Amino acid sequence: MAHPDDVDFGAAGSVAGWTDAGIEVVYLMVTDGDAGGFDDGLTRPEMAALRRNEQRAAAKVVGVTDVRFLGYPDGRVEATLDLRRDIARVIRQVRPDRVLMPSPERNYERIYPSHPDHRAVGAAALDAVYPDARNPYAFPELLTEGLEAWTAREVWLTGGPSANHYVDITDRFERKVSALRAHASQTAHMPEEDLRAMLHGWLSASAAAGGLPEGRLAEPFQVVDTA
């Protein structure tokens, strides 16, 4: 993901379901979120350190303990070869079956998920999955580091315009809220009832779009077979 809190807004309920089922989940944040927050009293390095700690705390809420950061500058991410290599490196280290990432497409129905950093990270991550991580001749320095090629079998895109899969998180809604409240620098300005109402509206609409019964809450994804 591009920033701390992106995974929690987009997929914390689904992640909680995966870890509950015994699936190991690793987070990779491309930036430290140093351009975020509302506190002018903090320097940008202090904000970055705070947001890293907030992401680690939020991750624990949904059963994730391995949280990694690449340290790219918040607000200035581009889908460069260096970023593709750095993401491919972690894919080869972790060797995942599934890679969750922001959609590289702009969503005109709901603009907020289409932050430029999100789209850049989505484009770079998709290229890192295919072809970079699986091609032993791409970024030969990774082989020198002892990292063999790896093929991830599927990609889950979040925040995009073309959802084709909906995960019922009704029973994990409270954990999603708790994970987001852990990002106090981003959510403390919002009364909890307002945050809950905002999330409930998004997730209810997604559940309806996915054909789930009334009263259910769902996180939407576009699932892509990359095996």
UniProtKB/TrEMBL annotation:
Organism placement in taxonomy: Bacteria, Bacillati, Actinomycetota, Actinomycetes, Streptosporangiales
Stored PANTHER family: LMBE FAMILY PROTEIN, N-ACETYLGLUCOSAMINYL-PHOSPHATIDYLINOSITOL DE-N-ACETYLASE-RELATED
Highest taxon in the source lineage: Bacteria
Protein name: PIG-L deacetylase family protein
Keyword terms: Hydrolase, Zinc
Pfam families recorded: PIG-L (PF02585)
Source species of the chain: Actinomadura sediminis
Family annotation (InterPro entries): GlcNAc_PI_deacetylase-related (IPR003737), LmbE-like_dom_sf (IPR024078)
Enzyme class: hydrolase
A molecular function GO annotation: hydrolase activity
Entry EC number(s): 3.5.1.-
Xref: SUPFAM superfamilies: LmbE-like (SSF102588)
